[in-house]
TrEMBL record:
This protein's name: Dehydrogenase/reductase SDR family member 7B
Keyword Oxidoreductase: yes
Family, similarity comment: Belongs to the short-chain dehydrogenases/reductases (SDR) family.
Domain of life: Eukaryota
GO cellular component: membrane
Length: 315
């Protein structure tokens, strides 16, 4: 009798804990582990961090957060003027920030040449944040092959070239070695109409670096999967004519604040996680459905595809 009572109480306690975690999950904006993670300032204080795509959005938010935690920053994007403006506004001494403009559509050999010298800027390299990226708002049949190749160059090949050139410096990072943090996307797991090359390039990014993580012993890889975030990504997305889309879309407008995403990214990195999913509950649920019930997800996604297309194309 007593034993049965103990088992009953234990079941109630376990059930209550699971229910609490479930309700936190359905109301939260990231996976449970990331939701409860905390940033340890010692993870970043005095560490050298290279951020690509740093002039706006998540990259700029990462720079602000890391500056507050005492990191030494190397900021990269095509737009040098915007990088300098950001560097002047960061909450840290200006000498703690180095602006390194780089167009990631350049040939791999040039990207590797630039990247191979990055560790000399502050004398070491602790983190590489592969954050640069471009999206699409065009059907697979309408996008020219040059556009597909350009998207893979920015979202995938440039990150590979840049990281390959940094591996030696990251392996030699004092302590436990360096860390590579990739801004992937839930689009790597949940395919969306009008974004076929974007989804494919992000899937390639996630897979390549997960394999690299298995191969390296002194370099850690963290893949981050954000959902919709209020950044210029839709405005700057590739359209059918190869030009920029030129406007946002409803999902992006309703997305998470980039500061919140940057905060959770750094918490996940600081906590030693290998991945983090950061998105609104509806998007997180979609990733679970796509993974666990692909047939059901295909039915749901196909029914929503036309409505989504109309909202994007403004028809």
């Amino acid at each position: 009798m007593i034993f049965g009572g103990v088992i009953g109480v234990a079941c109630v306690v376990v059930g209550a804990c699971l229910a609490r975690r479930f309700f936190r999950f359905i109301r939260g904006d990231c996976d449970l582990k990331t939701l409860s993670a905390r940033i340890n300032t010692r993870s970043f204080q005095g560490k050298v961090v290279w951020i690509t795509g740093a002039s706006s959005g998540i990259g700029a938010a990462l720079a602000v957060h890391l500056a507050k935690h005492g990191a030494l920053l190397i900021l990269t994007s095509r737009r040098e003027e915007k990088l300098n403006d950001l560097a002047d506004q960061l909450p840290c001494p200006r000498d703690n920030v180095y602006v390194l403009p780089l167009d990631l559509t350049n040939k791999a050999s040039y990207i590797e040449e630039v990247a191979s010298n990055v560790s000399a800027i502050f004398g070491r390299l602790d983190y590489v944040f592969n954050n640069a990226g471009v999206s699409s708002r065009v059907s697979a049949s309408d996008l020219e092959m040059e556009g597909v190749q350009r998207m893979f160059q920015i979202n995938f090949f440039s990150a590979v070239a840049l990281t390959r050139a940094c591996l030696r410096a990251l392996r030699e990072t004092p302590g436990a070695g360096g860390t590579i943090v990739n801004t992937v996307s839930i689009a790597a797991a949940v395919q969306t109409p009008l974004r076929s090359p974007y989804c494919a390039s992000k899937s390639a990014l996630a897979s390549y670096f997960r394999c690299l993580d298995l191969e390296e012993r002194n370099v850690r890889v963290v893949n981050i999967y954000p959902g919709s975030v209020r950044t210029p990504i839709a405005h700057n997305a590739m359209a059918a004519d190869g030009k920029t889309f030129g406007r946002s879309d409803p999902n992006i407008e309703a997305g998470l604040d980039p500061g919140r995403v940057a905060d959770r990214m750094l918490a996940a990195v600081s906590a030693g996680q290998s991945e983090a999913w950061i998105a609104k509950p509806k998007e997180l649920m979609a990733t679970r459905l796509a993974t666990w019930m692909p047939g059901l997800w295909s039915i749901i996604a196909s029914k929503r595809a036309d409505a989504y297309r109309r909202s994007i194309e403004g028809s």
